[in-house]
Amino acid sequence: MSTIAEREPVVTDRPPLSAHPPPAAGRAGTMEARDDSSIIRASLRTPECFAELFDRHAATLHRYVVRRLGPEHAEDVVAEAFTRAFETRHRYEFGRAEALPWLYGITTNIIGVHRRAEVRGLRALARTGEDPVTAAFDDRVAARVSASATRRRLAAALARLGRGERDVLLLIAWGDLTYEETARALGVPVGTVRSRLSRARRKVTAALGGANPAETREEDHG
User: Fold this and answer.
1) Of 8, 34, 7, 9, which Cα lies nearest the Cα of 23?
2) How many other β-carbons are positioned within 10 Å of the β-carbon of residue 41?
3) What is the per-residue pLDDT across 155-197, written as a single tens digit (0 to 9) for each?
4) How far, in Å, CA of 7 to CA of 144, rounded?
5) 72: three-class secondary structure by DSSP
């Protein structure tokens, strides 16, 4: 695992997915044995089943959004992501058992609506060295970028990346997606993912004087 942190505007009037009751105890055992694809397929007939997908992946997506945008946006972005996923579930590629890359792609598109807020937050960290998002770095990352000066340079480097470069870098580094999963999440060829990641790595490495806490290993993500 690595070590680093347009769609239409976000719709605020969304169906209350979280309001669906959790599966009954007997049914939960059945659902637990299903992969994500099976849950999505079942939800086409029984919409309440989709709540199981939320239960499985919402916390992971929430942490990702907090790292990128801060806690004030995270709940709304995740809710919107699951709303969009629910509304488009009939177009899911049912041959893919794991839905998290698909959900990351939807979430990243919504983050794009807030890209100015993301860049403002990174620039503020670069100026002050004070990270308002304490969850932005997990313990392993904090151990490697504990110096304030390094955090500031890293934030400044991330802020200067193009949106596509930042999306690729952080999906691989924070989302722990493979190159292929990142390509599917963003709807781009794998070659585009590799070129964007290469550019992002060079820029971050240069900004940190050769040390790159955002580095990912191709053998882990190829």
Assistant:
1) 34
2) 16
3) 788 888 888 998 999 999 889 999 999 999 999 999 999 999 9
4) 35
5) helix
